[in-house]
Amino acid sequence: MEANKQDGGSPGETSQMLMQMMSQMAEQLQALRAEREADREETRSQICALQSAIGTPAPTPQPASSAIERECQHNTSPQSIPTKKKPTIPDPKLFDGNRRNFRAWQLAMESKLRVDGPAIGGPADRFAYIYSRLDQTPQGMAAAYFEKGGADGCHDPSQFMEYLASCYGDPNIKQRALSRLETMRQGDRETFAAFLPKFERELADSGGANWEDSVRINALKRVINQELRAHLVGQLNLPTTYPGYVNALQNLGANLDEHHFQTRRQRADQQLRRKVSPARRSQQPRFEEQTQSPEQMDWEPTKIGRAGARPSNVSSRQTHDGRKCFRCNEVGHIAAYCTQGPRERPAGKSESAGKQERPQHKTKVARVEFKRSGQQAQDDEQSSQYETASDDESGKE
């Protein structure tokens, strides 16, 4: 009994011991996690301190913008700088050295550094990132500048972008854009949807993005074609803002494009009908003559004069055969399969020649002739008598 009591109490004791052990292990794990988090914070602070130390410039005269940026970096603690682990904007394409493509590449690079700068790293990392997005020819041109670390050796990315802009940028882009903006016009057959991107590009290059809405609206109204401008006369409540005005022109241009498409389609259908109608008119009288002519006889050939049907036992090979029947003189069968009776012999022709040439057939001929009519039998007897007489005379001779 005591053993059973001890056995019954042992599971409760073991469960308590297990709970104590699990609680101790959980406390140890929490302590380890806290230590690791502390170590990570220390390493992060050290990395940020090293980055800020690398980015600190030498005591040389610098632009006000870069100096203000560095002061902000020194004043802000490493923990207050927002950390970004993954970039959100794709990498800009490699710049190939073409001046026409530099403006688009410059805007893409500036937005990349502004948004994903913390994920890229410090100023030195951004400086190297700009150099990595250059093609072979631009890299060769900027190799000395990159090796030196910039004009003052501080690896400032903003100075690197200014250096590239001085090499590949167009300083007179605004003047040329303004001149093109004054002279450009929408074509008579050009749609507004195709013309608007050209206008927006010249407006952006000329610095018109910062203009007032009324100035931009007047500039756009001056370059559209006469048809679109004439349809604007009937519009009473036009928007006063530039985006709303552009939207109204887009809707009007879409309606005009649809109207032009329907008009062209109707013209094409009319031209097609004009081409088809003369041909139909030329064919119509002939058709009427064929149908309304009183002398026209509704005649169809019949099969009355044709020979009777061939027997069923005639094969297809015999029907298409080229041999000729000597009874009916028709091609396609032979005398054995001919449906007509035996060919009648002429009345004045005798059978003496045939008998002389083939005397062995005399008995057969007599049997066949015996079956003929009475008149024919008399004729045959007379002919036979004549033949016997001629035979006797020939024998005497």
From TrEMBL:
Residues 1-96, 263-321, 339-397 are annotated as: Disordered. Residues 15-32 have a biased composition (Low complexity). PROSITE patterns: ZF_CCHC (PS50158). The keyword Zinc-finger applies. SUPFAM superfamilies: Retrovirus zinc finger-like domains. One of its GO terms (molecular function) is zinc ion binding. Residues 33-44, 263-272, 342-372 have a biased composition (Basic and acidic residues). Residues 280-295, 373-388 have a biased composition (Polar residues). Keywords: Metal-binding, Zinc, Zinc-finger. This is CCHC-type domain-containing protein. The lineage of its organism: Eukaryota, Fungi, Dikarya, Ascomycota, Pezizomycotina.
